[in-house]
Sequence to fold (396 residues):
Amino acid sequence: MSGQNPVFIPGPTNIPDPIRHAMAVQTMDHRAPDFATTLRPVLADLKRLFRTETAEIITFPSSGTGGWEAAVTNTLSPGDKVLVARYGMFSHRWIDLCQRHFLDVEVIECEWGTGAPADLFAERLAADTDHQIKAVLVTHNETATGVLSDIAAVRAALDGCDHPAMLYVDCVSSLASMDFRMDEWGVDLAISGSQKGLMLAAGMAIVAVSQKAMKATETATSPRCYFDFRDMLRANAAAGYPYTPPLQLIFGLRKSLEMLFDEGLDNVFGRHHRLAEGVRRAVAAWGLELVAKSPELYSDSVTAIYVPEGFNADALVNHAYDAYGVSFGVGLGEMAGRAFRIGHLGALTDVMVLSGLATIEMAMKDLDYPITLGSGVAAAQEHFRATARAAMSNAA
Fold:
């Protein structure tokens, strides 16, 4: 029966029954004319989710990593210089991907627990007077550290020195959980995936491409085939794919978008913030420390928490799973063994979050952590009780 327990990892997330049922469809002919009635509304509604009027929406059967590769190979050439900061595991992996595609990657090293350094980007871009830097790459929500970066500030750094570099943003663990404004923030390429805020199974990369980035595809010389934007857009224009599409995910995405818009995006973001704040109050009650260095960096989709000196975070996560059948996130990269993560995005309620907090409290107490059993749950309960009426009013 442990399969009935929700997961508290930062993705893949819990799949609501309506979405599971929507994906449980029989095989159909993806070249039949009626496939258009499913695909076209999905692409149109994804533009609403990214908050863009002009970007092209492109989906690939892949994970978010495939979306990264598509973004790089369609718009850049080997030898092109890109600017990126390393402040977590996923910014690190994006750096690695760019290096493997023979880009000239300039890395700004940052302390893990901090966010995208808009001030340092501004200094480097201002010094790049001959505009060698072709793109700035930013991870919006760093899942390894529970840090949310200010994308508008990075755009201001570009605009402040009138630099023409494109702005690429990984919003895999922020889209549909926290506000994302592609047009307002001047994002040229936004990359997401199906398995986090969209509450689907893994297997679909979703890329929003500005007209400036589309123009760059005309001169980019990086090899691409499966991830070619142009092939996909030509096929989409005829309501198809250049190869076999992930039909079940497309049907699930139709239902996911319907559920998100029925709830209202502002309400979705408000719900995530409320749940995240409950988790953060629990952490404070335990006397533990967040990896994120300051409140303006706190993520509303995942919280990363340091364990006390002398304890191993991976052992805690493993014990929670072995003893109680509940999954939490292990520490990644520099956080391995030092921090665990509580994912609180997607299909979650305050009641579900309380069950996760109670479980990790039991696991900590089993391993002799210096906490008071029930303290974190009580702190979250007080927050949820105090905010329940407003949350219900917004939902109505």
User: Anything to note?
Assistant: The longest strand covers residues 133-139. The chain has two domains: 2-11+264-395, 22-261.
